[in-house]
What we know:
Strand order of the largest sheet: 1-4-3-5-6-7-2
Number of strands: 7
Largest sheet: 7 strands, antiparallel
Order of helices and strands: EHEHEEEEEHHHH
Shape: globular
Helix content: 25-40%
Structural class: alpha+beta
Strand content: 15-25%
Radius of gyration: 17 Å
Amino acid sequence: xxxxxxxxxxxxxxxxxxxxxxxxxxxxxxxxxxxxxxxxxxxxxxxxxxxxxxxxxxxxxxxxxxxxxxxxxxxxxxxxxxxxxxxxxxxxxxxxxxxxxxxxxxxxxxxxxxxxxxxxxxxxxxxxxxxxxxxxxxxxxxxxxxxxxxxxxxxxxxxxxxxxxxxxxxxxxxxxxxxxxxxxxxxxxxxxxxxxxx
Length: 198
């Protein structure tokens, strides 16, 4: 892992960062918001509190291989709170720590994909449809993680703050599947029905 000078960060990384993410990544307010800009076609919800968590070497190897297939030989790891960056080489096998920090992101130097980590134990991965499909193909159970997250989320008594669910689900799963998932969340008493998503 190699640190980057601030002037190089501002010149080379910040424009790519804003291509991938929206400015919510600079505001660690504790609210759950969709972090990606409209330039990314697809996204995934990743949960650490499930049978096949994303914060493992297995998932990192999957992500690494997908990035290498795009031509990435390194990625940026950015602390958006302190505004500094490290470069992580993908050409060498090795561990990559996922920090569960609301201000930590990893992204492709070309802006093809990005990973936003969250201190609540879940993350969002965004990229092209083909990139996300390659992750789904390697980890077919990945979309099931949302239900496991709901169970963990309910046990942590976060169910009172559910305003984020409709938009997040719509962005990740599309209209039809989002409605199905919201209904499942209601049945689990994790989401309170509102007029806006009926």
